[in-house]
Design a protein that fits this description.
- The chain is an all-beta fold and about 120 residues long.
- Helices cover about 0% and strands about 55% of the residues.
- Strands 2, 4, 5, 6, 9, 10 and 11 form a 7-stranded mixed sheet that branches.
- Strand 4 and strand 5 form a beta hairpin.
């Protein structure tokens, strides 16, 4: 079974940083683009970032310059370094697998709260 387990969330003050990790299992990790999505209270799921097979990242406009995604294929792990966090970044963050351009799995999330 495909499993995607995100971790590393928590509470941080505005301007702070967090690094999320995602451990994948149950599929050949290196064969898939992987990414991050988030869901804020009362809102829908939105795309945050995606890492290509080689690790190059693409980002939603609202996180460009602040977030960086990376992957370690040997460890089957995906990461999201989040800097200069803002209150509007508060959400549950999920690791996601992509088949082509379509997201086909979204794992268990990790809560990120940004407040003073």
């Amino acid at each position: 079974d495909v499993q995607l387990q995100a971790s590393g969330g928590g509470w941080v003050q505005p301007g702070g940083s967090l690094k999320l990790s995602c451990q994948a299992s149950g599929f050949i990790f290196q064969n898939y683009r992987m990414g991050w999505v988030r869901q804020a209270p009362g809102k829908g799921v939105e795309y945050v970032a995606i890492a290509s097979l080689g690790g190059a990242g693409r980002y939603a406009d609202f996180v460009k310059g602040r977030f960086t995604t990376s992957r370690d294929n040997a460890k089957k792990a995906l990461y999201l370094q989040m800097n200069d966090l803002k209150p509007e970044d508060t959400a549950i963050y999920y690791c996601a697998r992509y088949r082509g351009n379509e997201r086909d799995y979204k794992g268990q999330g990790t809560q990120v709260t940004v407040s003073s």
